[in-house]
Amino acid sequence: MMRRGRSSSQVMKYRGLIFDFNGVLLCDAGFQIEAWQQVAGQLRGREMSEEELALHMHGRPNSYVLSYLTGRQIAGCELLKLIQAKESLYRGLCLKNPDGLQLSPGARELLDTLVARSIPRTIATSSEKTNLDFFVKRLELERW
């Protein structure tokens, strides 16, 4: 990659790469949506509409979505319990659909190339720790 204002012979050097995990290295939106729809059904008796998903689920933290679904602020042990239940549903969906629990096309090859070239790399995620541990184990992420 080139930085503007530099000649074509000057190449930027990076110290490493950071990859977003959910939605980039792992296309898991379908699992997330299904888990949230199940939670919505349990908490309010109906699933979220497409508009609700766009406004109140995508890109939002669990605490926000749960407060939206219940119509009240949730905190403490109740919040933790609901988050753990939702994430357990999510992981269960992943396990029931192993073909969908794969790194994005080309990701393995890219990561292998970075390892071969000794280019530092890491993954960034806002996933719960239990999910991160799940991904590391199921997708063998420690190899990169």
Enumerate how many helices there are, as a single number. 6
Distance between the termini: 23 Å
What is the CATH third-level topology name of the largest domain?
A: DNA polymerase, domain 1
Supply the CATH class of the largest domain.
Mainly Alpha
Low-pLDDT stretches are none
Please give the radius of gyration in angstroms.
19 Å
- Helix-and-strand structural type: mainly alpha
State mean pLDDT (0 to 100 scale): 93
Envelope shape: elongated
Work out the number of β strands.
2
Tell me the strand percentage band. 5-15%
- Major β-sheet annotation: 2 strands, parallel
Name given to the CATH architecture of the largest domain: Orthogonal Bundle
Q: What proportion of the residues is helical, as a percent range? A: 40-55%
Strand order of the largest sheet: 1-2
How many separate domains? 2
Order of helices and strands: EHHHHHEH
Helix and strand arrangement:
Elements: E1 17-20, H1 29-44, H2 50-56, H3 62-70, H4 76-96, H5 107-116, E2 121-124, H6 129-138
Parallel strand pairs: 1-2
Give a description of the structure.
The protein has a two-stranded parallel ribbon with strand order 1-2. It is mainly α and about 140 residues long. It is built from 6 helices and 2 strands; from the N terminus they run βαααααβα. The model has no long low-confidence stretch (mean pLDDT about 95). About 15% of the residues are buried.
